[in-house]
Amino acid sequence: MNDDNSRALYDRALSVMPGGVNSAVRAAIEPYPFFVQKGDGGHVIDVDGNRYVDWVMGLGPLLLGHDLPDPVQASIQQKASEGPMYGTPTEIEVDLAEFVVRHVPSVEKIRFVNSGTEATVSAIRLARGYTGRNKIVINQGGYHGAQESTLVEGDAENPRPSSAGIPQSFSEHTIPVAFNDEDAVREAFEEHGDDIAAVLTEPILANYGIVHPEDGYHEFLREITDEHGSLLIFDEVITGFRVGGLGCAQTEFGVTPDLTTFGKIIGGGFPVGAIGGRAEILEQFAPSGPVFQAGTFSGHPVTMAAGLETLQFAAEHNVYDHVDELGDRLRDGLSEIVADQAPEYTVAGTASMYKVIFTRDGEAPKNGADVKNAETDRWRRVFWGQMKEQGIFLSQNQFECQFVSYGHTDEDVDRTLEAYKEAL
Question: Is 264 a catalytic residue?
Fold first, then answer.
C-alpha cells in the first residue's frame, strides 16, 4: 500500500500538534497513522486512495455507518443552515430528551453536555453533591474519560494518578477495585461506606478488550449501593444505544442505575455527552439545584438533530437486527478461526461489539488485569499492520473495542474473516 500522503501529513502534524494528533490513541500505531479523506458506508478511504473495511466507526458513535440515511442528513443540514447556535434553548433538544426518557427506563430527566468525559465529570460531581460524600468506587481497567477523578490506578489501599498533572490528593477520593470482584467492593464499603458517593462502572468493560460481568455482579452493586445510601452510576458512553437497543445495556442486564452517562451514538456522530437518571437527583443540577454545571455548546442543535434522527431511524428500520446479526456472524466465524489457529486467544463481545483478545490461555478475561496480561505488543506491532495491509481497519490497540454499523454488509464480514485467517 502506498502511504506517501499520510506520511507527509503526519510530518506536518508533528510540527504543530503534540504527537501529531488530537487524541492520543490515534498515534498508537507505529510509525504513523493513516489519514482518512472520507467515509463510504462501512469503509473509509485514506488520503492515498487506500480503502479499508472500517470496524472502528469513529470509536463507536457511527451506528449507521458513514453514509447517513436521507432523513438524518436532511435534518442535520436543515439545522446547520438555520444558524450555528444561539445560547438559548431550542425545540430539538427537548425532542431528543423526550425520546431518551421514553426509551431508557432509568432516565426520568437528562442533561446534555459535549463529550463522554464531560458527562462522567458532571455525573461524579452530581453524585457528590447529592449525597454529600466524597469517594467514588471505580473498576480497574474501566475508562470514564480524561478526567482527574478516574485517571487513577493502583488499588483501594494505594490509589495514585495514572497521568502526570494530577495531584496525589485527588486520587485519595477514588477507590479502584477489580471488575467482577465482589469482595473488593465489599471491603471498600466496610472501610469507607459512610463517605462513598457512588460506584461508577461500565456495564461491560468496553474500552479494555471487552470484559463481561459475571452473573450477579451488577445486581450485587445495586444491592450494596442501596444498602449504604450510595448511588450506582452506569457509564454507557460506549454501550448506550448499542447493547440492548434503545433501552441500552442496563435493560439487557435488568439492573436500574441511579445515573447513566451517555455519549457517542446519542449524538449521531457529532460531539455529545449526557447525564440521565432519577429526577430528584438530576434536579440538583443548576439552576434548579446547588451543583453547578454549564456549557456554551451543550444541546447544540446540529448534534441534537443528528442524535434524534439516528435513534428514530434505528427504531424504524430494524437497525439493531442488522448490526447484531453481523456481530454474531463475526464472532462465530472468529471463534472457529481462533479455535483452529490460535486456541490460546479469546473472542469477546456482544450485539454489535467484538474483539479478538490475544490472551495466553484461551480463557475469557474477567477483569482489566487479564487483558493487560495479554500479548498487547504482538497485537499492536504485528497483527494490526497485517490486517491493514489486507484493507481491514481495526482499533488502534488491543484495548479499544470494534464496532459493527448499519453500513456494513455480509461481504464485509466475509472479507474480514478471511483477513483474520491470513493474519493469525
Answer: yes
Is there a contact between 282 and 255 (Cβ–Cβ < 8 Å)? no
Query: Which pLDDT does position 316 carry in this prediction?
Result: 97
pTM equals 0.97
Considering 52, 143, 320, 354, which one is annotated as catalytic?
143
For residues 288-325, b (16+ Cβ closer than 10 Å) or e, as one string? ebebebeeebbbbbbbbbbbbbbbbbbeeeebbebbbe
Catalytic residue among 79, 109, 135, 264: 264
pLDDT tens-digit series, residues 307-328: 999 999 999 999 999 999 999 9
Select from 227, 7, 248, 205 the least CA-distant residue to 107. 248
Annotation marks residue 235 as catalytic: yes
Opening angle at CA 364, ends 175 and 377, nearest 5? 80
Among candidate residues 3, 235, 258, 324, the one labeled active-site is 235
Q: What is the pLDDT of residue 410?
A: 98
Rounded Cα distance, 292 and 92, in Å: 24
pLDDT of residue 29: 83
> Is 195 annotated in the active site?
no
